[in-house]
Amino acid sequence: GDDDATGIALAPVTAIAIMPVSVGDVDRLSNYDYPAAARKQGVEGDVVISLIVDEHGGVHSVRVVTGLGFGLDEEAKKLARKLSFRPALDTRQNPIAVRIPWTFKFTLPK
Q: What's the DSSP call for residue 15?
């Protein structure tokens, strides 16, 4: 697989039997600071992140694929690093590292 400059060997897509599953209270991530610039401009929407879930379920190599700016991209990257996963499994049921997309939906606080 491609190591993505992180030193983490990624599994080839054909070897992935089960994709990573997020664990823990993902809703707790809704408790974040809505960036002042985004709030002032009335900006809301989706930020799509690409990240590596390693064979232990840890998150690495977080990058923005589709951003909104106004501080929301940085907030999404910070939140992505707080995610935890059950790792992906290959066809032999061994945990493997994979790169996945993750979408954060930002809605202006009421």
A: G
Residue 105's alpha-carbon distances to 42, 69, 78, 96, 108, in angstroms, are 14, 13, 14, 27, 10
Query: What are the pLDDT tens digits along the chain (110 aa)?
Result: 455 567 888 888 778 999 999 998 766 566 678 899 999 999 999 999 999 999 999 999 999 999 999 999 999 999 999 999 999 999 999 999 999 999 999 999 88
3-state secondary structure 21-88: EEECCHHHHHCCCCCHHHHHHCCCEEEEEEEEECCCCCEEEEEEEECCCCCHHHHHHHHHCCCEEECE
- Kindly state the tokens that stand for 50: 């690409």
User: Which residues, in sequence order, are CB contacts of 83 under 8 Å at separation 6+?
Assistant: 22, 24, 26, 29, 51, 59, 102
